[in-house]
From TrEMBL:
Pfam families listed in its UniProt record: DNA_pol_D_N, DNA_pol_E_B
Protein name, as recorded: DNA polymerase delta subunit 2
Family: Belongs to the DNA polymerase delta/II small subunit family.
Domain DNA polymerase alpha/delta/epsilon subunit B, chain residue ranges per copy: 194-417
Domain DNA polymerase delta subunit OB-fold: from-to ranges: 32-172
Signal peptide residues on this chain, from the entry's feature table: none
An annotated GO BP: DNA strand elongation involved in DNA replication
GO molecular function, one term: DNA binding
Keywords: DNA replication
InterPro entries listed in its UniProt record: DNA_pol_a/d/e_bsu, DNA_pol_D_N, DNA_pol_delta/II_ssu
GO cellular component: delta DNA polymerase complex
UniProt xrefs under Gene3D superfamilies: 2.40.50.430, 3.60.21.50
Length: 461
């Protein structure tokens, strides 16, 4: 009998689900979306008052108005409210309906093709009692590096200034929540890695399937020379857009034809991307625990928060107990570190509010600024439900942050970028995860240090 000199054991990380707040119970769609904003305001109002008193230490507590209607002309005061950005280039469902009438069949927007920013844009602050337009001057205080353009619809802020006789609010400063408590847990002392991959894009005829096969073999360790090093990979996160975007028409390989009956052959072609995804997930789950998040292109509900993949879509891989089907956004703990991430719709939609940039490096930096803004303002998806489709919650807003995570990521982005946001004793690693179908790149994160690095999959033919 052959003697075994050593046995390599894959690293294991403690795992805890924290995404229950994004799960939808009984779904009702009769309520008004305005309630979402008032829920958001009521959940964050007290935090903003405390943040304002800390930020402006000379401020008297009675200067913070309980309601906007209490602000008096000519007297400096602080009001807490919801920002609304009036933008003439922003799409309007009422204008669409007026143009097309009842025959209108709206499609999900391609946000990357639309930018709403214009010189005529105006910011309005509102609460339960009214609304008032904000007037900014050259000398204004928001955040260290945060410019006025990053103030978008849906943010809850405390604004210091003076109400003018013209009915405007002259802004002296804007205060976000800025910093939230961060959970303290026991963190692994050994090096172990988490791989985050997004945009696998199964069913995309322009993508060579060998890339996905080589990625699978890399994750399992067969494509690496040093197997011992590879077995430090302890978890894989598949972060949305695992199949390609739905198409209309009769192109081979499509998996959805809107409003059209399809024959059996077309049904088989439509199911092909999901079968390929199921095969890939089985390969990963047989060796490594994994988190599976849905994305904008995947066959789940379109409204945020997107619910987990139904087991019937991936019947073979769901038999593995190592597969965790989660929501989008998703939050979970790995090795004592809290991960909070999305499949990227929140960042893409936020970018639509910002002026265009010309260089890829500038866009990468801007996307990091967007993620930092979400942290500072304490909200994962501020532009929902205005321009980002979301469920009409009647009594809560699950996108409000109550704590800062240790790692905050957005997937399906044009390129990889990262930074660290630090405030006091709190520190958050921010990462934009590139789309694999566009870049052939995945991100590895050291669970002990949260230091990321990029692995590029290349094929030489």
């Amino acid at each position: 009998m052959a003697q075994v000199d050593a046995c390599v054991v894959r690293k294991e990380l403690t795992y805890e689900e924290k995404w229950q707040r994004f799960e939808l119970g009984e779904r009702k769609y009769g309520q008004q979306y305005s309630q979402v904003y008032f829920n958001r305001l009521n959940m964050m109002r007290e935090q903003l008052k405390k943040a304002a008193l800390q930020r402006w230490s000379s401020l008297q507590e009675d200067s913070i108005m309980e309601r906007m209607v209490q602000a008096k002309d000519g007297a400096e005061s602080v009001v807490v409210g919801i920002l609304f950005k009036e933008m003439k280039l922003k799409p309007s469902i009422l204008q669409e309906y007026a143009k097309h009438g009842a025959a209108m069949m709206p499609n999900p927007p391609r946000r990357a093709e639309k930018l709403y920013a214009d010189e005529s844009d105006a910011l309005i602050l509102e609460d339960e009692t009214g609304r008032i337009q904000l007037e900014f001057h050259e000398e204004r205080e928001i955040l260290k590096d945060l410019r006025e353009e990053f103030l978008v619809s849906g943010l809850i802020v405390a604004v210091k200034g003076t109400k003018t006789k013209k009915g405007l609010f002259s802004v002296a400063g804007v205060c976000p929540v800025s910093v939230l408590p961060q959970p303290t847990t026991s963190i692994s002392e050994d090096d172990a890695y988490v791989c985050i991959v997004s945009g696998l894009g199964f069913g995309d005829e322009t993508m060579n399937p060998l890339y996905a096969d080589l990625l699978l073999e890399t994750l399992k360790g067969a494509a690496l020379a040093d197997a011992t090093e590879n077995f430090k990979l302890a978890h894989v996160i598949v972060a949305g857009n695992s199949v390609c975007r739905a198409k209309d028409g009769s192109d081979k390989g499509e998996y959805l034809k809107s409003h059209k009956a399809i024959d059996r052959k077309a049904q088989d072609e439509a199911a092909f991307p999901m079968r390929e995804l199921d095969r890939f997930l089985c390969g990963v789950a047989s060796a490594i625990p994994m988190e599976l998040m849905p994305g904008e292109n995947d066959p789940v509900n379109y409204l945020l928060p997107q619910q987990a993949f139904h087991p019937c879509l991936i019947p073979d891989s769901t038999k593995f107990t190592s597969v965790h089907r989660s929501t989008n956004p998703s939050e979970f703990s790995l090795g004592g570190q809290t991960f909070l991430g999305t499949s990227g719709q929140n960042v893409d939609d936020y970018m639509s509010y910002l002026p265009p940039v010309n260089k890829p490096a500038e866009e990468s930096a801007q996307r990091l600024d967007v993620l930092e803004s979400m942290l500072r303002f304490g909200h994962i998806a501020p532009t929902a439900p205005d321009t980002l489709a979301s469920y009409p919650f009647s009594s809560t807003d699950p996108f409000v942050m109550k704590e800062w995570p240790n790692l905050f990521f957005a997937a399906n982005q044009p390129s990889f970028s990262t930074t660290v946001v630090s405030e006091g004793t709190s520190s958050v690693r921010i990462i934009t995860v590139p789309s694999f179908s566009r870049t052939r790149e995945v991100v590895f994160v050291n669970i002990r240090t949260l230091e990321p690095h990029v692995l590029s999959i290349e094929i030489s033919l």
